[in-house]
Amino acid sequence: MIFLDFHNPAVEELLLTRFSNAKAGIKFEKIDYTVADFDRVLYRIHNLEKDKSKLLVSLLVNFFDELREYDVEGLLKREYGAYMLDEPQPGYSVSLLFDLENVPQNYEAVARHVSMIKRNCFAAVFEPFFLLQALADEPIISKRAVIHYSPNEAMYVQALEDRITVIFSTVFKDADDVVIGKIFMQPAANAVGKLSRLTATQS
Protein backbone atom coordinates (compact mmCIF):
# COMPACT_ATOMS: atom_id res chain seq x y z
CA MET A 1 0.00 0.00 0.00
CA ILE A 2 1.20 3.53 -0.80
CA PHE A 3 0.92 6.34 1.74
CA LEU A 4 1.16 9.96 0.59
CA ASP A 5 2.02 12.71 3.06
CA PHE A 6 -0.48 15.53 3.44
CA HIS A 7 2.44 17.93 3.91
CA ASN A 8 5.63 18.53 1.92
CA PRO A 9 8.59 17.04 3.86
CA ALA A 10 11.19 18.91 1.77
CA VAL A 11 9.60 22.28 2.58
CA GLU A 12 9.33 21.36 6.25
CA GLU A 13 12.99 20.30 6.42
CA LEU A 14 14.22 23.47 4.70
CA LEU A 15 12.27 25.66 7.11
CA LEU A 16 13.33 23.70 10.18
CA THR A 17 16.98 24.09 9.18
CA ARG A 18 16.68 27.84 8.63
CA PHE A 19 14.66 28.43 11.79
CA SER A 20 16.93 26.32 14.01
CA ASN A 21 20.07 27.95 12.56
CA ALA A 22 18.62 31.38 13.24
CA LYS A 23 17.76 30.37 16.81
CA ALA A 24 21.34 29.16 17.29
CA GLY A 25 22.74 32.49 16.09
CA ILE A 26 24.31 31.05 12.94
CA LYS A 27 25.02 33.63 10.26
CA PHE A 28 22.21 34.06 7.74
CA GLU A 29 22.92 32.58 4.31
CA LYS A 30 21.38 33.23 0.95
CA ILE A 31 18.76 30.65 0.00
CA ASP A 32 16.77 30.06 -3.17
CA TYR A 33 15.14 26.65 -3.57
CA THR A 34 12.33 25.48 -5.82
CA VAL A 35 10.44 22.38 -4.70
CA ALA A 36 8.02 20.51 -6.97
CA ASP A 37 4.98 18.72 -5.59
CA PHE A 38 2.14 16.65 -7.02
CA ASP A 39 -0.57 18.35 -9.10
CA ARG A 40 2.00 20.65 -10.80
CA VAL A 41 2.34 22.65 -7.58
CA LEU A 42 5.60 24.54 -7.00
CA TYR A 43 7.13 26.01 -3.86
CA ARG A 44 9.86 28.63 -3.86
CA ILE A 45 11.79 29.31 -0.66
CA HIS A 46 14.13 32.27 -0.89
CA ASN A 47 15.31 35.47 0.75
CA LEU A 48 13.72 38.83 0.35
CA GLU A 49 15.85 40.79 -2.10
CA LYS A 50 19.06 42.05 -0.42
CA ASP A 51 17.90 40.90 3.03
CA LYS A 52 19.06 37.45 4.16
CA SER A 53 17.18 37.80 7.44
CA LYS A 54 13.81 37.64 5.65
CA LEU A 55 12.57 34.32 4.29
CA LEU A 56 9.81 34.01 1.70
CA VAL A 57 7.79 30.88 1.04
CA SER A 58 5.74 31.14 -2.15
CA LEU A 59 3.31 28.62 -3.60
CA LEU A 60 2.17 28.30 -7.21
CA VAL A 61 -1.14 26.48 -7.71
CA ASN A 62 -2.27 26.38 -11.33
CA PHE A 63 -5.93 25.97 -10.37
CA PHE A 64 -5.88 28.75 -7.74
CA ASP A 65 -8.47 30.81 -9.63
CA GLU A 66 -10.97 27.94 -9.25
CA LEU A 67 -10.22 27.80 -5.51
CA ARG A 68 -11.02 31.51 -5.20
CA GLU A 69 -14.68 30.60 -5.68
CA TYR A 70 -14.41 28.96 -2.23
CA ASP A 71 -12.56 31.87 -0.57
CA VAL A 72 -9.19 30.12 -0.47
CA GLU A 73 -7.43 33.40 0.37
CA GLY A 74 -9.71 33.93 3.36
CA LEU A 75 -8.95 30.45 4.66
CA LEU A 76 -5.19 30.89 4.17
CA LYS A 77 -5.30 34.27 5.93
CA ARG A 78 -7.06 32.60 8.84
CA GLU A 79 -4.43 29.84 8.97
CA TYR A 80 -1.26 31.92 8.44
CA GLY A 81 -2.27 35.34 9.73
CA ALA A 82 0.40 38.03 9.62
CA TYR A 83 2.84 35.74 7.79
CA MET A 84 0.71 35.96 4.65
CA LEU A 85 1.46 38.84 2.28
CA ASP A 86 -1.42 40.80 0.80
CA GLU A 87 0.26 40.53 -2.61
CA PRO A 88 2.10 37.29 -3.46
CA GLN A 89 5.44 37.26 -5.23
CA PRO A 90 5.15 37.68 -9.03
CA GLY A 91 4.16 34.43 -10.71
CA TYR A 92 2.92 32.79 -7.49
CA SER A 93 -0.48 32.26 -5.90
CA VAL A 94 0.36 33.00 -2.26
CA SER A 95 3.46 34.10 -0.33
CA LEU A 96 4.41 33.92 3.35
CA LEU A 97 7.14 36.07 4.91
CA PHE A 98 9.23 35.12 7.96
CA ASP A 99 11.70 37.22 9.94
CA LEU A 100 14.69 35.06 10.90
CA GLU A 101 15.64 37.63 13.54
CA ASN A 102 12.36 36.91 15.30
CA VAL A 103 11.77 33.16 14.94
CA PRO A 104 8.70 31.99 16.89
CA GLN A 105 9.23 29.72 19.89
CA ASN A 106 7.03 27.06 18.29
CA TYR A 107 9.00 27.15 15.04
CA GLU A 108 8.74 23.37 14.58
CA ALA A 109 4.94 23.58 14.53
CA VAL A 110 5.13 26.61 12.22
CA ALA A 111 7.38 24.73 9.78
CA ARG A 112 4.95 21.80 9.70
CA HIS A 113 1.98 24.12 9.23
CA VAL A 114 3.65 25.92 6.32
CA SER A 115 4.47 22.58 4.69
CA MET A 116 0.71 21.88 4.72
CA ILE A 117 -0.19 24.97 2.70
CA LYS A 118 -1.20 23.00 -0.41
CA ARG A 119 -3.41 20.79 1.75
CA ASN A 120 -4.99 23.92 3.21
CA CYS A 121 -5.69 25.26 -0.29
CA PHE A 122 -7.72 22.11 -0.98
CA ALA A 123 -9.45 22.53 2.40
CA ALA A 124 -11.10 25.66 1.03
CA VAL A 125 -13.21 23.39 -1.18
CA PHE A 126 -14.09 20.81 1.46
CA GLU A 127 -14.81 23.08 4.43
CA PRO A 128 -18.00 24.72 3.10
CA PHE A 129 -19.40 21.33 2.08
CA PHE A 130 -18.78 19.85 5.54
CA LEU A 131 -20.33 22.91 7.18
CA LEU A 132 -23.29 22.73 4.84
CA GLN A 133 -23.99 19.17 5.86
CA ALA A 134 -23.32 19.70 9.56
CA LEU A 135 -25.51 22.80 9.90
CA ALA A 136 -28.30 22.03 7.44
CA ASP A 137 -31.74 22.13 9.05
CA GLU A 138 -33.42 20.87 5.89
CA PRO A 139 -32.56 18.11 3.39
CA ILE A 140 -29.61 19.14 1.20
CA ILE A 141 -30.22 19.66 -2.47
CA SER A 142 -27.22 18.07 -4.17
CA LYS A 143 -24.33 20.54 -4.53
CA ARG A 144 -21.11 19.89 -6.40
CA ALA A 145 -17.68 21.49 -6.80
CA VAL A 146 -15.34 20.74 -9.69
CA ILE A 147 -11.62 21.50 -9.50
CA HIS A 148 -9.48 20.93 -12.60
CA TYR A 149 -6.09 20.47 -10.97
CA SER A 150 -4.36 19.43 -14.21
CA PRO A 151 -5.33 19.35 -17.92
CA ASN A 152 -6.46 15.71 -17.75
CA GLU A 153 -7.43 15.41 -14.10
CA ALA A 154 -10.28 16.78 -12.02
CA MET A 155 -11.69 16.46 -8.52
CA TYR A 156 -15.44 16.40 -7.91
CA VAL A 157 -16.84 17.08 -4.43
CA GLN A 158 -20.54 16.48 -3.93
CA ALA A 159 -22.68 17.06 -0.85
CA LEU A 160 -25.66 14.76 -0.37
CA GLU A 161 -28.06 14.47 2.52
CA ASP A 162 -26.08 11.81 4.37
CA ARG A 163 -22.54 12.00 2.97
CA ILE A 164 -19.83 13.91 1.13
CA THR A 165 -18.57 12.13 -1.98
CA VAL A 166 -15.19 12.86 -3.58
CA ILE A 167 -14.36 11.56 -7.05
CA PHE A 168 -11.01 11.90 -8.82
CA SER A 169 -11.02 11.69 -12.59
CA THR A 170 -7.79 11.02 -14.47
CA VAL A 171 -6.58 9.84 -17.87
CA PHE A 172 -3.72 7.33 -18.13
CA LYS A 173 -1.94 8.28 -21.35
CA ASP A 174 1.13 6.04 -21.51
CA ALA A 175 2.39 2.69 -20.26
CA ASP A 176 4.07 4.17 -17.17
CA ASP A 177 0.82 5.89 -16.16
CA VAL A 178 -1.05 2.61 -16.48
CA VAL A 179 1.47 0.83 -14.22
CA ILE A 180 1.29 3.60 -11.60
CA GLY A 181 -2.51 3.57 -11.82
CA LYS A 182 -2.59 -0.17 -11.15
CA ILE A 183 -0.35 0.28 -8.09
CA PHE A 184 -2.69 2.90 -6.64
CA MET A 185 -5.87 0.99 -7.49
CA GLN A 186 -4.74 -2.43 -6.26
CA PRO A 187 -5.47 -1.73 -2.55
CA ALA A 188 -9.01 -0.67 -3.50
CA ALA A 189 -9.48 -3.81 -5.59
CA ASN A 190 -8.22 -5.95 -2.70
CA ALA A 191 -10.65 -4.25 -0.31
CA VAL A 192 -13.59 -4.83 -2.66
CA GLY A 193 -12.63 -8.50 -3.03
CA LYS A 194 -12.33 -8.93 0.72
CA LEU A 195 -15.73 -7.30 1.27
CA SER A 196 -17.33 -9.53 -1.38
CA ARG A 197 -15.94 -12.68 0.26
CA LEU A 198 -17.11 -11.51 3.68
CA THR A 199 -20.62 -10.81 2.37
CA ALA A 200 -20.78 -14.21 0.66
CA THR A 201 -19.69 -15.97 3.88
CA GLN A 202 -22.32 -14.19 5.98
CA SER A 203 -25.12 -15.02 3.54
From TrEMBL:
One GO process term, biological-process aspect: actin filament polymerization
UniProt-recorded Gene Ontology molecular function terms: actin filament binding; structural constituent of cytoskeleton
Family under the similarity heading: Belongs to the ARPC2 family.
Descriptive protein name: Arp2/3 complex 34 kDa subunit
Subunit structure of this chain's protein: Component of the Arp2/3 complex.
Keyword vocabulary terms for this entry: Actin-binding, Cytoplasm, Cytoskeleton
Cell location: Cytoplasm, Cytoskeleton
Function description: Functions as actin-binding component of the Arp2/3 complex which is involved in regulation of actin polymerization and together with an activating nucleation-promoting factor (NPF) mediates the formation of branched actin networks.
InterPro entries (alphabetical): ARPC2, ARPC2/4
Protein origin, superkingdom: Eukaryota
Subcellular location, principal: cytoplasm
